[in-house]
Design a protein that fits this description.
Number of helices: 3
CATH class: Alpha Beta
Order of helices and strands: EHEEHEH
Structural class: alpha+beta
Radius of gyration: 15 Å
Distance between the termini: 27 Å
Number of strands: 4
Length: 98
C-alpha cells in the first residue's frame, strides 16, 4: 500500500513555524526503513498495512509530545500484491508524457 500523509502540530513555535515538529515526524519515517519520500506538502510511504500504520502512529506520537493537538491528513492506495509503486506509478505517467 501507498500512503500520503501530512502531520502538523496544533500550535506553532514562537516564530510561527511547525518545521521542528514535522522534522521529528519525518525522522521516524526515514528511520523505519520503508520506502518513502517527502515533498513540500506530504510524506509518502510504502509497505504493508500494519507496518505503514505503525510508522504513522509513531510519527503522530512524536508530534503529540511537542503539542497537545495534532492534525493528520492521510490518503491511501490499497492495492494488494503490488510493491515498488512509489516510483512505478510516476514512471507510468512519465511514459504517457513522452
Amino acid at each position: 500500500m501507498l500512503v500520503a500523509f501530512s502531520i502538523s502540530p496544533g500550535s506553532a513555535d514562537e516564530d510561527g513555524s511547525v518545521s521542528e515538529a514535522v522534522a521529528a515526524a519525518i525522522r521516524v519515517v526515514r528511520e523505519s526503513g520503508l520506502p518513502n519520500e517527502t515533498n513540500a506538502m506530504f510524506t509518502n510511504i510504502e509497505g504493508e498495512w500494519d507496518e505503514v500504520m505503525a510508522v504513522i502512529k509513531r510519527a503522530v506520537d512524536v508530534v503529540a509530545a511537542r503539542s497537545n493537538r495534532v492534525s493528520l491528513v492521510l490518503k491511501a492506495d490499497i492495492r494488494p500484491g503490488f510493491t515498488g509503486q512509489l516510483a512505478a506509478k510516476v514512471a507510468r505517467i512519465d511514459e504517457h508524457l513522452g
